[in-house]
Amino acid sequence: MDEISRRDFLQMTAGAGAFATLARPAGDVVSAQPAAGAAADGWFDRPMRWVQLTLVENDPGRFDPQFWLDYFRRLHADAATLSAGGIVAYYPTAIPLHHRSQWLGESDPFGTLAAGCRALGMNVLARTDPHAAREDVRAAHPDWIAVTRDGEPRRHWANPDLWVTCALGPYNFEFMDQVHREIVSRYGVDGVFANRWSPQGGDCYCVHCQQNFKAATGHELPRSTDRRDPARRQFLEWRKARLTELWKRWDATVRAARAEARFIPNGPPDMKTAGELAPIQFADNQARRGVTPPWANGRRAKEYRSVMGRRPVGGIFSVGLEEPYRWKDSVQSEPEIRLWVAEGTANGARPWVTKFSGVLYDRRWLPVVERIYDWHHRHERYLRNEESLARVAVLYSEQMAAASTPAGDRAEDHVLGMYHALVEARVPFDLVHEAFLAPERLDRFSLLILADAAALSDVQCAAIRDYVNRGGSLLATFASSLYDETGGRRPDFGLADVFGVSFAGRIDGPMQNSYLSLDADPVTGKRHALLDGLDDTPRIINGVYRVDVRPHDTTFASPLTLIPTYPDLPMEDVYPRVPHTTTGEVFLRQLTRGRVIFFPWDIDRTFWEVMSVDHLKVLRNAIAWASRDPQPVEVEGPGVIDVTVWRQRDSMTVHLVNLTNPMMMKGPLREAIPVGPLRVRVRLPQGARARGVQLLTAGTAPGLTEANGVMTLTVPSVEIHEVIAVDL
Ligand SMILES: [Zn+2]
After folding, report:
1. Residues 559 and 648 reside in one and the same domain
2. Ligand 1 centroid vs 150 CA: distance in angstroms?
3. How far does the centroid of ligand 1 lie from the alpha carbon of residue 169, in Å?
4. What CATH number should be reported for the domain holding residue 462?
5. Distance 97 CA to ligand 1 centre (A)
6. What is the per-residue pLDDT for 11?
7. Which three-class secondary structure state does DSSP give residue 541?
8. Taking the model in full, what pTM does it have?
9. Domain total in the chain
10. Which residues, by Cβ under 5 Å, contact ligand 1, an ion?
11. Is 526 exposed, middle or buried (0-12, 13-18, 19+ CB in 10 A)?
12. CATH code of 700's domain
């Protein structure tokens, strides 16, 4: 892209055929994805940089469209999402009850902006928001409004002048369908993007929801919100099906108005459906909530990639803070915005900046985003990823929330702890979604990690067992596979044969003051590689919860054994009552090719809670032992660095995102603290030679050595984001 102008590129990609040749060579790596074939057609993969301008009702006549168009041009933005209709129409709509902005007058701000973006060669999505309506809508169609459990029409929680609409009834299926048809046929946009299109503010008990649920299931709407209640589960399934039907309805309408256009929801009914239906998705994780760590944005990108494969994922970011207070104007520091976007980019999302209100109050973010987008534009060819080269995957489970685990054991914390350990261990990794466990998807990983993947169906267990039988390695923790997909507890682990242990009937915890003894092999007298770096201690702290298990091989000597809880007060009583046991707290299996390692305790969850470096060492050793081969990239040097590795058509890239910061475990950044030098070893793809190497941010070509397909180089310093780009 550097050699040809943007105009040339647009012309080259104008025809779908030319585009397909340019961006999608044969050998689609997402063949395991149901909708992979559909993704090759259309405009969706063209835009690399997105912008979104969400107007507020009094913007018309007050904001300057040309200012925004000039800014979009300076950003080298390829696509825009622009406010069109729904709660407020920003164009002269002809649909009764479609509320025109009170400030609209004779103007057409949506049309003006859309035409301006088109003139810049950009794709345009029309943004609608159907989740609220005014009193005149309620008066004319009371049945369009959502109904609370008490039978009252639902007022909007933030603006009591508005009513919340029923997402699953005629307001969306008929009225908004008409709105979408009008917008696409009048303006010829590339698609419609609907915000907050699913039920908002709670379950709806309106007459349509009652009738439709009864017609579908024969039952009344459930009152229970317990996910384990079968009636509740049935309701959730019905709601998902109804939303999927709505997605298809709107998509058919949009396509009928313009063949190339699509309906794209902001947030699918669930990720599996996104994987099946969507040509493109947008990860709406605009900024930190409270003090979430910055890799939260990379994680969201990984989640979307786990179902979207090669299809594009936009990473929506903003310059204001998210829930619960939602300050939507400029809030974050420059380093924080840059790090947030870098995490998205490094993990395969394309930047999409969103701004609410066409009138600006705080302008500090404008040059920051411009610099990020300019960098992205200059290095675009190295950011158009074909596949991740990570060899480690963590199972991404949406059904895990259904599993019944002990009080205080928060399932999500297992995943967060494992995620953080992988980042700290500098292991490039992907997520694989529980709905897509076919061999084509799994077999490119040498190691699959189940971070308390408690709820797994028999089919999912079988897919994981087959993966191990084909030579894959498995690392699992805690209650993985102890429950089925509905949260019902099995008599034994679904993967008991793979783990080599059975459930002994009890989950212990919370355990106070329990430890793990580090035991040498009774035959060789040597310690297992799992304990590397812990030579100077006979024991480390235990976790907080453990599953009692019975090993199948009773001769197995575990390198970690239980030192049971003993009093932590009064101080006079703080001594182990049982100094040593033979109760194994890790189980290792060496199969013909793969390796299996099972921790029957919450090493990942406890790591997230207390961040013990000893637990990190054990996890890092476990990943290395189970992976067998070295990781595709190894980084030596100080700091906390998120490492990802990608292949493009004629190149590969290694992203180094510097998370080193005194406030790193909290999202806010005051300044960027550079780290380096870093010594990096990169394994080139089989049979590939490096024709040239550059550091995209530093703008330099590093000195390097290459031997046996391994390239070694030094990155002098990483401020926030460096990319090693290797031409192949
Ligand atoms: Zn309803």
Report:
1. no
2. 13
3. 6
4. 3.40.50.880
5. 19
6. 33
7. strand
8. 0.90
9. 3
10. 166, 169, 204, 206, 209
11. exposed
12. 2.60.40.1180
